[in-house]
Amino acid sequence: MLEISKLVKRYGHDEAVLKGLDLVVEDNSVVAIVGASGAGKSTMLRCINRLVEPSSGSIRLNGNELVNLRGAALRRARRKIGMVFQGFNLIDRLTVMENVLAGRLGYVSLYQAISRRYPQADIERAFQLMERVGIAQYANKRADELSGGERQRVGVVRALMQEPELLLADEPTASLDPRTSEQIMMLLQSLASELSLPVLINIHNVAQAKTYTERIVGLRHGKMIFDGKPAEFDKDALDAIYGGIEAPDETVSDPQATEQQTDKQHADKPRQRDKGLDEVKHDQA
Ligand SMILES: Nc1ncnc2c1ncn2[C@@H]1O[C@H](COP(=O)(O)OP(=O)(O)OP(=O)(O)O)[C@@H](O)[C@H]1O
Q: Which atom of ligand 1 is nearest to 52's Cα?
């Protein structure tokens, strides 16, 4: 469980970018963070994984306080937080398998990492996860030979290799075509429940947020002004969050109609084949 309390972030002497955020995210729960450009979405994710130093407040992951951790304790905490990026952040000249194994860097010795002698258990787990997301056949291909959707799956598997207790995704679909975006959102949704992970997704695409997450949090100028179910995210919520700015990729009409459309979208879409992550889950227990 992720518990954020009174989180404030101020860059230098500027006005605070995050103004006292409170948020609790249970395991198994996929939360979309929406908001206009500059609302503070990325800053919030970066405070959680401590790429950015919070100015004040508390961020607890499964009861452990992340704010103020330093050195080895911070490294240990960070490896429990998987991150998926808009631009995938793969090393192009390395193979898919090598990129995936990079998710173990926080766990292996420097010698093992440099000589690429990862434990057999890591390699087996990498194959399991790659099979689960449908990229095992590319294990020995260079990362830059894959399509965008395949590359993002590599990014997801790399994050899962960390055995995360929390998964953060910063605009994971923004570089992908609509169909591939939907597949990645479905994948994140099913992995959250298979691995019992809280997942936070920064996303500009409100339609995708409504379809593929069970909770939407709306930020405006660093304050949380909406926190509710997709069905409750109506035109008023959209106006409050985007305040006259046109929301990307969606015009919200009657919420009921939107619900029906959402149901239809679900019905039309084949669910990601659940090839069972029981073993992986077991490993993580
Ligand atoms: N390193 C930094 N130094 C100073 N100001 C920053 C820094 N990073 C972000 N900001 C400012 O903080 C505010 C929030 O930025 P942030 O990137 O968190 O917003 P966002 O909601 O993720 O926007 P977008 O959707 O465009 O990515 C912006 O005004 C931005 O200019």
A: 1
